[in-house]
Amino acid sequence: MIDALKSPPASPVLGATVLAVTSGKGGVGKTFTSANLAAALAKRGHNVLVLDADLGLANLDVVLNLHPKVTLHDVFTGRASIDEAIVKSSGGFSVLLAGSGMVEYSRLTPEVREEFMHVLRGLVPRYDVVILDTGAGISDVVLFAISLASEVLVVATPEPTSLTDAYAAIKVLATQQKRQHVRMIINQTARPGDGRAITTQLQQVLDRFMPAGNGRSVRLIHVGDVPSDPAVREAVMRRQLLMTSMPGCSAALAVAELARKLDESIISPQQEGAPRNTPAS
Fold first, then answer.
1. SS3 278
2. How far apart are CA 262 and CA 39, in angstroms?
3. Degrees (nearest 5) of the Cα angle 34, 253, 17?
4. Cα dist. 138→132, 164, 174, 176 in Å?
5. Which domains occur in the chain, in start order?
6. Each residue of 230-280: pLDDT tens digit?
């Protein structure tokens, strides 16, 4: 594994709060969360950009019903500038989309690594928040993207396979990147309190099987839940943002609450120059 993945660096330059939204497995609503969280943060007055960091298997364009003529691939190859690749979404935030099916980006080559960091350095000073919508799993490309973020949001569902893969991803982040805390968003919950209970169970497993050097394992912070809601499937099928198409539904209200918590605990304190607050789960 590349040495640079072993510890999370600070943001490449001063500017935006960089959030990596990731998951242990696909199909848990990671990109849905990234896009709608961005819309909710934009509604709170922040200048937000979502960067599609799922290099090679990008689908943010599908979720947002965008048809870009210029992508991150064009920026990497020098055929276009960052400004030419950035588009505005209907949710009031900016987007930098990656090309889908780009086999050359399935591995973290030195060229991909350098171009990715160059792009991020150019973006961070312009925004309040940059959300990296990473791929699922623990490939070197995914881990590198996560390593560039100051905060990690792991999206999981109550499904056993999702939780097993989330545990595996968190374990890698704790051991290789020395993450001291990871924030959890539990999607598709059936009952209030399910997500907090799931986060507590995962914490107990981590405490038991992978204590840190100081005797404490990585700390999981439960940010909140997004309940199962038929409006989500409807919005996804229509390629619409839930926050703009059905802002009063239960899932949209839950995403708005996630945005509020992240804003108050991470984003606004950083912009004000205050120390970061890591609230109790």
1. coil
2. 13
3. 35
4. 15, 13, 12, 11
5. 16-269 (3.40.50.300)
6. 999 999 999 999 999 999 999 999 999 999 999 999 999 887 764 444 443
